[in-house]
Amino acid sequence: MTLREFFWIDRNPPVSTFRHFQREEAFVSDRLLQFFSYEHLPPRLREVSANFHNLAVWMDQELPATPERTVAFRKLLEAKDCAVRAQLEGPLDHG
């Protein structure tokens, strides 16, 4: 196989490849969504995490299954983890 054939230069990939990609992206989003659960957290951390969960669910329902959506999930998960840690490190009372 030449590089031109490998990278689909001069022709379109078969439809089955695109369908396989879509199934794979759906599987990735299902796996990543599990990390946005928040019911197990104490109330003050649950409040922070719930907002990220809601955005992750919206992304799953509204954005097309693409590699960029997967990146968005991963970056949102990273941001959620940072926000939860910030809440852990911060004062217990906001007043």
What's this model, at a glance?
The protein is mainly α and 95 residues long. It has helices at 3-6, 15-33, 43-62, 67-89.
Rounded to an integer in angstroms, the radius of gyration calculated over CA atoms is 19 Å
Given the C-alpha coordinates, what overall shape results? elongated
Structural class: mainly alpha
Q: Profile the largest sheet.
A: none
Number of helices: 4
How much helical structure, as a percent, in the residues? 55-70%
Give the tally of structural domains: 1
| Helix and strand element order | HHHH
What ranges have pLDDT less than 50 throughout 5 or more consecutive residues? none
Number of strands: 0
| Approximate strand percentage | under 5%
Distance between the termini: 66 Å
Give the overall pLDDT as a whole number.
81
Description:
This protein is mainly alpha-helical and 95 residues long. The chain has one domain. Helices cover 69% and strands 0% of the residues. It is built from four helices and no strands. The N and C termini lie far apart (66 Å). 5% of the residues are buried. The mean pLDDT is 81.
